[in-house]
Amino acid sequence: MQTHTYCQETLLELFNDTGLNPPKPLKTMLSLLIVALLENNKAHPSVLAECLAITGITVIARIQRIRRFLSNEKLSPAITVVPLIRLIRPLLSNAREIVLAMDRTDWDKRRKHVNILSVAICYKGRAIPVFWIVLDRKGNSSFKHWKQVLTPVIEGLQQTEGLSGIPIHVVADREFASPKLAEWLKKTYGVDATLRMKASMYLKGDGMSEIKIATVLQRMVKGSRRVFYDQIVTQDSTFKMNVVLNRGKEYEEAMVVATTVAKPHRAELIYGGRFGIEAMHKDWKSNAFELEKTRVTDTKRIETLLIPIAFAYVLCVFEGENKEESGDVRVPPKGKERTVGLFLSGLRSISTKLRRDGIKQFRIFFRNLLKPFCKAWKIPAFA
C-alpha cells in the first residue's frame, strides 16, 4: 500500500503543477481512481471501489463515493484539457507538427446508447486523449459538435508555452468530410485539415466541369494515384481544397482525402496518423478499461469517468516511451507497427511496479517517469 499512497500523493502535486484545481475532495478521488487504473484494474465502479486506497469504509460506501464523484458538476473535461496538454508537452516540444485526430465511438448497453466524440493527439502510431464529449443521442455528430471538441484543444495548444509556435493539423474520417470544417479551421485558427472524402461527393475545379468522385475512381486502374488542385468538393461549398485519389494496391478500397496543405503528396502520410485514435478507443472500450462492459451509461458519468482514464493513459504512454528509449522494448523497424502499443506496454510496466516494488524502488521509478514533465516546466523533481 505504500506505493499506492506515494503514487496518489504525487498525483495531487502533479495536479497543482498542471493547473488542475477542482475542490480538494474531487482531486483526492481523482488521484485515487488514477492509481487504481494504473494498477491495471478495469474501469468498473465496483472494481475500482475494491481497489481504492481508502481504509475504514465499506466497499458499498466507496461505490457511492465514486458515483457522487462521477455525477459532480464541478468536474468536467473542460477543466482538464489544458492540464492534460501541459502534462503531454514533453512528448510534443520537438515536434514539427501536432496532428489532432477527431473521431467518434459508440456502443449499446442496457437499452441505452453511449456515443463519444473525442479529440486526441497522434503520437507514434497511437493517440493520446485530450478532450471529449458524450452525446445524448444516437447517430452521427454535427458541425456544432466538431467545433465544440476542437476549439478548447486548439486554443489550449496555441496558448501553451513551448507549443504555441508548432503548426497544428486536424485529420478525420468520412463522418467529418466537410469543407465547412476545413474552412473554419483555416480561417479561424490557421490550422490545416486533411479529411477523408466520400465517393459520392463532387469535384469542381477551374476549367473542368463538375464530376462525381466515384466516376473518377472508376476510370482509374488499380495502383494509380491522382491529385486535383484547388477543388470545390461539394455542390454547396465555395472553399477550395486539394484532393488526392489513390487506388493503391495496399488499400481494400480507394483512399480519397481532401487537404488544405499546399503539398498534397503529404496528405496521405498525415492522414495515416488518424488510425491511432481507433486503437485508443479500443483501449477504452475493451483492451484495458472495458468501458463497454461497465454498467455506466449516464452521459455525465461516462464523461467524468474518462478523466482519470485520460491521465492514466498519458502516464502509461510516458512509461512505454521510457521502455523503448532504455532498450527494454524493441523499437519497431521503420514502416512497421508495434506489436504492443506504447500505452499497453507502459500500463503493464506501471501496474507491475505498483504491485511488486518496495517504496524506495517505486519512488525512484515514479520520479524518473515524471522527470520530463518537471524538466519542461522547470519544476523541482517530486520528493
Key phrases:
13 helices; alpha+beta; 47% helix; single chain; 383 residues; 10 strands
What this model shows, in words?
This protein has 383 residues and is α+β, with helices and mostly antiparallel strands. Helices cover 47% and strands 18% of the residues. It is built from 13 helices and ten strands. The protein has helices at 2-18, 24-38, 45-51, 59-71, 77-92, 143-158, 179-189, 213-218, 267-271, 275-287, 299-326, 342-356, 359-376; strands at residues 98-109, 112-123, 126-135, 168-172, 192-196, 202-203, 211-212, 225-232, 240-246, 255-259. The strands form two sheets. The chain has an eight-stranded mixed β-sheet, with helices on both faces. A hairpin with an 8-residue loop joins strand 9 (240-246) and strand 10. The protein is elongated, with a radius of gyration of 22 Å. The two termini are 18 Å apart.
How would the global form be characterised? elongated
Distance N terminus to C terminus?
18 Å
What's the alpha carbon Rg, rounded to whole Å?
Answer: 22 Å
Largest sheet, spatial ordering of strands:
3-2-1-4-5-10-9-8
Beta fraction? 15-25%
Give the helix/strand class: alpha+beta
Helix-strand string: HHHHHEEEHEHEEEHEEEHHHHH
Secondary structure blueprint with pairings:
Blueprint: H1 2-18, H2 24-38, H3 45-51, H4 59-71, H5 77-92, E1 98-109, E2 112-123, E3 126-135, H6 143-158, E4 168-172, H7 179-189, E5 192-196, E6 202-203, E7 211-212, H8 213-218, E8 225-232, E9 240-246, E10 255-259, H9 267-271, H10 275-287, H11 299-326, H12 342-356, H13 359-376
Parallel strand pairs: 1-4, 4-5
Antiparallel strand pairs: 1-2, 2-3, 5-10, 6-7, 8-9, 9-10
Helix pairs in contact: 1-2, 1-13, 2-11, 3-4, 4-11, 5-6, 5-11, 5-13, 11-12
